[in-house]
Amino acid sequence: MKPIIAPSVLASDFANLQTEVEMLNESQADWLHIDIMDGRFVPNISFGFPVLQAIQRHAKKPLDVHLMIVEPELYIEQFREAGAEIISVHLEACNHLHRTIQQIKTTGAKAGIALNPHTSVQLLDDVIADVDLVCLMSVNPGFGGQKFIENTYRKIEALKNLIIARNSKALIEIDGGVNQQNAPLLLEKGADALVAGSFVFNSTDPLQTIANLKNQA
User: Fold this and answer.
1) Rounded distance between C-alpha atoms, residue 122 and residue 189, angstroms
2) Any idea where the domains of the chain sit in the sequence?
3) Which residue positions are annotated as catalytic (predicted)?
4) From 35, 64, 132, 192, the catalytic residue
5) How confident is the model at residue 211 (pLDDT cuts 50, 70, 90)?
6) Binding site as annotated, residues for substrate
7) Distance CA 140, CA 133 (A)
8) ∠ CA 43-46-50 to the nearest 5 degrees?
9) How far apart, in whole angstroms, are the C-alpha atoms of residue 3 and residue 19?
10) Mean pLDDT in residue range 160-181
């Protein structure tokens, strides 16, 4: 089964955002990955509702929205209204994680949980059966273009075992430092979806780069 490819719009040319989104529409990408940062949960600020709505107007593919923000429960409905079809919140940012998962599902969006590199997948034991996606950060969140953290392979295996043990249907998404070299092993270990930002948008031929990632398996 071919992997889900979700190019990260954070790495695109913001001055030509419509053109970049239209390129992704024509590519073999499956989702558009949208990183929302608030300058508090991570040391960076990206964009908010107006930009997300602008992307949604031109996108022909699902918006995979990754909330790197504190108190995400305050904004779930607004992100759904702005076009998010998948909403992932960080385990580290949620005091009442199960409640937030249910809140996401109530909007009709798919619910995801993101984990920072230092966070154990075993903390998902009580909620893994309730989510549609787990996003494993393979770099420290907040900035693109970082070096891939090798321990991610072990975490994928552990997460896959947990998913099987709990009879969950959750997909495993890898976000950070994904490229042509590590993609085959990520998929071999059990990843279902690959987020790629700089690797796609900094390449000389983004369409071909996306196609190469898509056809790893």
Assistant:
1) 17
2) 4-214
3) 35, 175
4) 35
5) very high
6) 8, 66, 142-145, 175-177, 197-198
7) 19
8) 150
9) 25
10) 97
In tens, the pLDDT along 86-130 reads 999 999 999 999 999 999 999 999 999 999 999 999 999 999 999
* Average pLDDT over every residue of 136-158: 87
Binding residues, as ranges, are 8, 33, 35, 66, 142-145, 175-177, 197-198
The tokens for 55 are: 């992307």
| pLDDT at 153 exceeding the cut of 60 | yes
Could you tell me the two tokens for 175? 């976000």
35 is catalytic: yes
For residue 93, what are the CA distances in angstroms to 34, 68, 141, 214?
18, 8, 13, 31
Query: Is 64 marked active-site?
Result: no
Kindly name the residue from 38, 64, 175, 192 that is annotated as catalytic. 175
DSSP class of residue 124 equals G
Which ranges of the chain does DSSP label H, i.e. alpha helix? Answer: 17-26, 49-58, 76-81, 97-106, 152-165, 183-189, 198-201, 206-214
**Global pTM exceeds 0.85:** yes
Mean pLDDT of the chain: 95
Distance CA 160, CA 191 (A): 8
Which of 3.20.20.70, 1.10.760.10, 2.60.40.10, 3.40.50.1820 would CATH assign to domain 4-214? 3.20.20.70
What are the CA-CA distances from residue 52 to residues 12, 47, 79 (Å)? 14, 7, 8
Residue keyed to tokens 């949604």:
56
